Amino acid sequence: MPTANQTLRRIPSVNQILCGPGVDSLLEQYPRHLVVEEVRNALDRLRVSIRRSGDPDRALASGLADLAPELGRSLRNRLRPSLRPVINATGIILHTNLGRAPLNEGTAKVMKSLSQGYSNLEFDLDQGKRGHRDRHLDEQFRRLLPCEAATAVNNNAAALYLVLSTLARGKKVLVSRGELVEIGGSFRVPSILEQSGATLKEVGTTNRTRIEDYREALDGETALILRVHPSNFRVVGFSRRPDLSELVALSRDAGIPLLKDAGSGYLFRTSHACLRTEPTVEEILKAGVDLVCFSGDKLLGGPQAGIVLGKRPLIEAVRKNPLARVCRLDKATFAGLQRTLSLYEQGTYLERLPVYRMLGATGASLQNRARRIRRGLDPGAYRSRILDGFSLTGGGSAPEETVPTTLLALRSTACSCNELSRRLRRGSRPVVARIENDWVILDLRTMLPEEDEALVRSLSQAASGD
Ligand SMILES: *Cc1c(COP(=O)(O)O)cnc(C)c1O
Hints:
By secondary structure, this protein is an alpha/beta fold. It has 19 helices and 18 strands. A hairpin with a 7-residue loop joins strand 14 and strand 15. Helix 4 packs antiparallel against helix 5, helix 6 packs antiparallel against helix 14 and helix 7 runs parallel beside helix 14. The chain is elongated and about 95 Å long. It starts with a helix and ends with a helix. Pyridoxal-5'-phosphate binds next to helix 8 and strand 11.
């Protein structure tokens, strides 16, 4: 048998490989310098496997035979966009790390088609002159909700920041100590306030704030009262804060505007039990707040945005703030929001928006899907069980409420749970799952039904280790 060193000397040169079969065609598809780099990487790997092999010649022959397809794979991987669709098996419907609300199909279509050409984004077609981009949402929100005007920016953090900077720069904002929360991803109410140039005036204590505390804190420097949805967190036990209606009465009395950060954009009351403690935007506006802000991509079910509704003079002041330009929305998002809102206007949003379809999916339909997916699995590769479990809404809404769900629990016959979940994440259609009691757990509620076939393919790829 030849020694490894003798075999290593017989490895072809980079140039010889570039002219070889299969590799020449890669040069037509990819830039030469990338192909050369990948050939060098592949040869480095080949040298390692020859040195480690008990049969160096065989290692060389099989390495060279696999070379062209391996180069094709690594070049494809290299140029593949890093941002890709994934299957959300986590059971968290509004998962911020996974892009929050999936869009309804029609919404995604109008966003695409509007982006492909020109539009009347800021052009009044009747008058033939410049218009304002907010116009497209203003009318729709006024038809849907008891508000005088609407504006939309890039996300809810920007909306809050913009309102604070417009109405309270250099002045005081009253906030209950129980609402000085961190929402995640370094969004902290006190920091946003500070950055906006407003001064925070803390009111009450962490667990108890009374309306008198607000009244006593009011002074000539006060520009705004802010009420924040505590989002992902609850104070339980000996706790209290004033009703929104009490704050509205106080703010009218004092002539100081009241802003509510509602967070999730839950527009109207539904029959979903898990959302029973979540205030709706409609209820908040009916209570008489001056402004309310919320995200577009949480329970509203649309694209990422921050929306502010309320009194017209205040909204107009917000629009005129030069910072509005810094966080303004693009045309595709306006189109997506309009389309999402039209589903509310038509009364079809509960059936058409994926977030509400997921919330409303019945146990029987989830179990049927779980059984069908399970039948698609190779019984030699997987052990599987169907279990009951609980999903979460996520996105800061209804933190302690859960939704009963169906889980598909999997174990690979060939590898550990950690390895299986790693392979699932790294597949061509990544699946993000969780591990519990040594099973990989897939929650049927958060996986889109139209992705079930892709899921079965991802599972069979993960089983074979590709
Ligand atoms: C989610 C949330 C925010 C931040 O909204 P983004 O759209 O992520 O910027 C702000 N306030 C509350 C109460 C929230 O729930």
